[in-house]
Amino acid sequence: MNVIEKLNSIQNKEMTAKENVEHFIKVIDEKNDSINAFVEKNYEAALKQAEKIDEKIANGEKVGCLSGLVFGIKANINVEDLIVSAASKTLENYKGSYNATVIEKILEEDGIIIGLTNMDEFAAGSSTETSMYGPTENPAAMGRIPGGSSGGSAAAIAAEMCDITLGSDTGGSIRNPASHCGVIGFKPTYGLVSRQGLLDLSMSLDQIGPFANDPSGIALALNTIVDYDSSECTSLHSDIDFTSVLEEKSLEGMKIAVCNDFIEVTDDKINKVVNKAIQKLVDAGAELVEVSFDHLELCLPTYYLINYVEFFSATRKYDGRDYGYRIEEVCGDEVLRRIKMGSLISQKEYSGKYYKKALQARSLIRNEINAMLENVDLIVGPTVPKLPHKIGEELTPMEMYVYDILTVIANLGGIPAGSIKAGEVEDIPVGLQIQAKPLDDLKIIKAMSVLSNL
């Protein structure tokens, strides 16, 4: 049963919202000790909310478009009365005093929050190993990382602990773990989803998005959280119905592109699996063309320079005065590295040399990715260039950063991108990344739906 079928089942009184919550509580209690996907549980409130939804349905009252569906939320998104720690000792006692805009929208549509999911500390990582709660296991490849920084959200879906989860994506933090865990993850066009209530890593790059095991879960989540928010300065207007393409079985008239520059930096075994998935899109009617990207070597340094500076700025509020501890005194190595680098680059004598040049490079990258998309509907290719390493394996910072080389482009360009399982290499999932023009998010959902319906 996919997510939309379950929704219909609840609304048609074939199962109750409470039964759905109770099922997931049982699964979490059975699996979470070994997987460590959830770091904060919200069982009592979830059950109470489910009972209210069931009562409305029994009385024939109108219910929301998520009625009874169960959500896990990344621990850097504010949920009232839960410990919103961003997996950092800095905020280990910070209880959310309000709901982020996306949480308000989920609750308004009768979605149910069952808990908060594990992540890399302050979203600074690609493996979910830097969390103060310890690493998260990959349910699809036990012993290996689930990816990051939204690894707990991806793992919760892979382990079937809830219907939908939310993560945040700054340079691939939704798509990377979606690929490693064999689930679907989606980063919308920058500005389509309000960031109000997100503990930001890099405000000009961050975007909240959903995970699910099938396209209908992604579509239902997006229909709820994609909306204009007057309290958020980057917010865009949209009237997209993401469920409108869920039954699509053809890509006739759609032009998709592969980029050899992306293929060349990716492991050959991953490319073979990804190419088979691309062929399925061609068999469904898509026309395949080739494009080139001349500035791939610029992407990682550009992304991390901007990330360092914006993260340093964002962390100045964690000074230990209003709440939590002073971040530099309790944070982990990767967070401290980014703070120190951001502090250095922000200094007047270095700002022009590094940060301003990074902003210029970002414009160059954005222009090139938009030029690549000008005459095609989608760019398709591998999500991550290598398989996930084993938990605890020592990697240098640069070896860790390489996970992001194919995903940072979408954040630098502000374009939508998603990852869907292409297949497996050595029993480890690998993802197909699908990217589109700004505000062409629906085309990605269509391609994912066609691939799932084959």
Automatic annotation (TrEMBL):
The keyword ATP-binding applies. SUPFAM superfamilies: Amidase signature (AS) enzymes (SSF75304). One of its GO terms (molecular function) is ATP binding. Pfam families: Amidase. One of its GO terms (biological process) is translation. The active site is at K74 (charge relay system), S149 (charge relay system), S173 (acyl-ester intermediate). Its EC number is 6.3.5.7. InterPro entries: Amidase (IPR000120), Amidase_CS (IPR020556), Amidase_dom (IPR023631), AS_sf (IPR036928), GatA (IPR004412). GO terms for cellular component: glutamyl-tRNA(Gln) amidotransferase complex. Keywords: ATP-binding, Ligase, Nucleotide-binding, Protein biosynthesis, Transferase. It catalyses: L-glutamyl-tRNA(Gln) + L-glutamine + ATP + H2O = L-glutaminyl-tRNA(Gln) + L-glutamate + ADP + phosphate + H(+). Residues 19-442 form the Amidase domain. Allows the formation of correctly charged Gln-tRNA(Gln) through the transamidation of misacylated Glu-tRNA(Gln) in organisms which lack glutaminyl-tRNA synthetase. The reaction takes place in the presence of glutamine and ATP through an activated gamma-phospho-Glu-tRNA(Gln). HAMAP family: GatA. NCBIfam families: gatA (TIGR00132). Belongs to the amidase family. GatA subfamily. Heterotrimer of A, B and C subunits. This is Glutamyl-tRNA(Gln) amidotransferase subunit A. The lineage of its organism: Archaea, Methanobacteriati, Methanobacteriota, Methanomada group, Methanobacteria.
